## 1
Amino acid sequence: MTIQTIKTAPFSDQKPGTSGLRKRVGVYQQPNYVENYIQAIFDSLEGFEGKTLVIGGDGRFYNDVAIQTAIKIASANGFGKVLVGQNGLLSTPAASHIIRHYKAFGGLVLSASHNPGGPDGDFGIKYNVSNGGPAPEKITDAVFARSKVIDSYKIVDAADVALDRIGLQRSGNMVVEVVDPVADYAALMQTLFDFPAIEAMFASGFRMTFDAMHAVTGPYAHAIFEGMLGAPKGTVLNGTPSPDFGQGHPDPNLVYCKEMYDLLMSANGPDFGAASDGDGDRNLIIGKNRFVTPSDSLALLAANAHLAPGYKQGIAGIARSMPTSAAADRVAEKLGIEMHETPTGWKFFGNLLDAGRVTICGEESAGTGSNHVREKDGLWAVLLWLNILAVRKQSVDEIVREHWATYGRNYYTRHDYEEVDAEVAGKLVDDLRAKLPSLPGKVFEDDLQIAYADDFTYHDPVDGSTSAKQGIRIGFTDGSRIVLRLSGTGTVGATLRLYLERYEAPDGRHDLETQAALEPLIALADELAGITQRTGRQAPSVIT
Ligand code: VG1
Ligand code: CO
């Protein structure tokens, strides 16, 4: 075995986005692209000599190649050990747990999450720090800076690791342990939730369908729902991870889970439907005749978390990303606990969780999680819902309606315009930003009066850091909001995200169709930002 130092030239586009570096597979397949990026990560870290690195991915195309490369570069750079999931698989929350549980130095999560996979799809690499969470901006900025000047990387000349073989192997001087991807994670879930109560609910005929979308949660869902909780075989659909996700789009929303939605709305449908995304950190929750928006789900889980054993002492606080609806704020207010609004992306929750200031976090993009790991966690959300259903013995629909009757309803939708010309999208945002100072006080149709208009800046209360330009917020005196930002996970052109929200008091109307309820705001957003006119799009690509 020898350690080789290979000369390389930098790439200019290795800037991590909302959640790691995501690119088309073809970009990643360029010679030295993976090598450069991983070396740039290691060059931005200190003190890992002899320490443990966790590696795992969502099983998408190119995972196997990138993992072998990552192991060899980790070995050459002096890591003492790599813990890797069998067959290269680790869901994002499971990777976070393994980093924490084994006190690893950090981890590499290989995923492009909900983006399609396969040779023409996307690939991604994300670095997580020792608390199990995504690297903070300080590190991702350093990685990008390093990637622009890197001129060599170190790699061992060693054989590939047999990723299918559980147990100890070596790569150069470094130990590689291939671990069961599910066992530690499933054990953690058992400490948080009342498994016997959920099992009893299944035994009494409760019916659920879970769509793993041919992605990483399949093995976890089979083991936990059908294995440990006794749900009938067949409860888990599409439970075998495939490199191209069965040619599907592993994004659990009403567009890509339309069939499940229709099933849950049908007379003979199951009681509960759920799905997760490519890397297992998102969740979709649909009760019989009731879709639960992710923003409402966050509020509901926070309000009911004490019903699960892991949270019976109550929760310390709640955090939500800025575009997420304010439904959770009302729960925090009632509970008298802290509420935080952070920029989009899970990395901003890490400090608040580490400091014990919040217990539950969530994003409108179908991500919810707690202090049990430092990533959002799809199966955790499903299990917490099941635990709540088992204790309250009511339907999802009843629970949601009672929640609205107590706290009011935040009608909420997100309109995505995908693959918009990047220049057009950039100018649209810049022009709207320039208009912001003139907006407060203006009154539009339907008595919509603007209370404030700004580009969100986050001040981290724990480490004092500041993150500016995190998205445009236009707030109205009645609690309605228009939010607009550009996606940081897309790989082609720009994705414009428009988020709309309107509050209806506890005794108000809670039975309106969402898009209709938000129509005046949708029209006003278009008027203010000129989306139709500038993009030439008559309708959003995706509505969630
Ligand atoms: C999107 C979501 C954001 C989420 C991020 C990563 O980011 O909006 O809430 O944290 O994806 O999730 P953006 O910048 O495209 O809006 V995942 O499941 O893709 O890791
Ligand atoms: Co994801």
## 2
Amino acid sequence: MSYDKREEDVVTNLSNNAHIDDIVEQNLANPNRRRLMATGAGAAALSFMSLTGCGSSDSSSPAPVTPAPTPTTPPVGKVSALGFPAVSKSLADVVTVPPGYQASVLFRLGDPLNAATPDYRNDGTEPGASFEFRAGDHHDGMDYYGLSATGTRDANSSTRGLMCINHEALTPALLHANGVTLVSGVRTVPDECIKEMNAMGVAVVEIAKAANGTWSYVRNSSFNRRITTITDTILSGPAAGSSFMITKHSPNGTRTRGTANNCAHGTTPWGTYLACEENWAGYFRRVTAVDNPKRTAKELTSFARYGVAGNGREGWATATAADPNDTVFSRWNAERLGTSADGSDDFRNAPNTFGWNVEIDPYSPTSTPKKRTAMGRFAHEGAWVGKVTAGQPLVWYMGCDSRGEYIYKYVSNANWDPADATRGMAAGDKYLDDGKLYAARFNADGLGEWLELRFGVGNITSTNTTYAFANQADVLINARLAADAAGATKMDRPEWGAVDPFNGNVYITLTNNNSTLRSVALTDAANPRSYNDPRTNGTAQRGNPNGHIIRFAELNGSNTAVAFNWDIYLFGARAGTDPRTVNLSNLTAANDMSSPDGLWFGGNGILWIQTDDGAYTDVTNCMMLAAIPGQVRDGGPITVTNTDGTNTKAVTTYIGAASATTETNLRRFLVGPKEAEITGVTQTPDYRTMFVNIQHPGEDTAPNFTTRTYGSYWPDGGNARPRSATIVITRIDGGVIGV
Ligand code: FEO
Ligand code: CA
Ligand code: CA
Ligand code: CA
């Protein structure tokens, strides 16, 4: 199969924005194995079982400067050295952690969230509605929100908390008794669709640590809730209520139904959660041959740029036979079906209500989620808050996860007032509904620029010939087109970000790119490699199949800076490949990896890196590594000579210090089970408990329900169907993780 496991990602960036090669040419010349298994199906409490086994690119650019350290106060001291032996690569169907560590399963697909919902049978026979009260599928981004003994918010609690977990997507076949029922392209069993629509979205679940040190989720907690693709949701900010948002569900354009494809996430200084909507476009049905003739030229440009075309990824829009007027299914049909001028009698505008960051208050179980439109609409991987300083604007860094897409930031207009830390969603109204949106341009001289996406600025105008923007709501809804117009840099699929708590450096994973969009000719300083990474069987994998991690430092350490210095911290590669063109970071058996995706800084300065890989899977399952990564510009320039045998191109880039990617400072900590992505990681505030998500074990192998043969049997073992799950990792001696 392709090294890119997420084929739902459709390349839609056909802009002429530089892959910055032109500018480049102008300016630059055995560890113990711990097998993770669950106790009996349906058990809420699971025990530990360890078994065997601003400048521009021209010469007037300001000189790069090193920003001053930020004045943040990390909660604990900075870790200076990693303290565990590297875990070996593995193809086993287990979770492996270092010796001295233990792992247990906390919260699996289907686990019930109240007493009234039965234990999960894991045989596909549960009714669809039951998933309103069960763990969803494809656990992804998550965060921990501390609770006091009396059930109030306590950011310092390391024994009781609420976990917010994204359920990004589905392995649909495993949710039903005999796979998906599809007759001539029609979903003829509507309840299967209801189950799938409920198995996505977000879970809020209380978790607690017992006196014996084991963690479990609290099945009867009044905080437990599911937000699904069906949940009524508020549209908030500048694009809410605009003509672009009018649907049959909300004729005044202020609400929509639910959230979808929540990949990574974000946090706020006031204790709420941001569930970010990533590659949502594919869920909508819009048969272009039927619908295109009914749409305006602007609508067609917008649909093309966001990839809204096709039959609908899961076919939910076809499940209307039982109730033709039902909005639960028909809301996935984005074709113009009604006769109204404004779209109030159909769901032609429904795609405009997806692609946002969704704020959820985990401490308020009855609160209604809000989509924060000021932060822009794209394939939001996540939103990572930068340094928080009283009296200064707040900033969130964001990636758009598709090949050739952009990195963004959002800066609040309001200055941070610590008194708002207890105001919940009201604080969100203040800081997330009013701000400035920017896209990043990475220049070949090592500087970058933040390009403001504002109606009337530069080419973002009503006279733009590609897309005539009408107003700021139009700019936010079509942020990709605005970033095209501004001249942002096409990246190798931006995934997670993380902000160093000690110096404010921002890291973004660029998971991989293919040979079309990252050909030798299209390499640039910030995406500098195009190479072949042959699999063990000789199959070629070209482009940038292993990905890299870019990082940047705002000029003067300011959230409001419009320029930054950048370099590349880490290049993914298999050990032993050419150190001049592929293995630029000199990775070894202790830390070689491919397709970085999840990324998270503990407050103690350890950077955790997770993979969602299809390129190195001939040798190893996906993994998580720990790192002490240094800082922006602690290395220097290097020149990479890319060749595909026909074309050759030398690219100069900036790489971090070589010492940061030696085994001393970068080491594999965990390897997951078969055909799983490792994504989502957080810790308790004392850094003694870690939570990690194992997403879609066994997803690549078609299940055989007769022989009960699956691509993985994790976590339940035997011949059980595999299940996505959150796991808990602790040190056997109770110490801080990773040191
Ligand atoms: Fe859902 Fe960007 O991975
Ligand atoms: Ca991801
Ligand atoms: Ca990914
Ligand atoms: Ca995945």
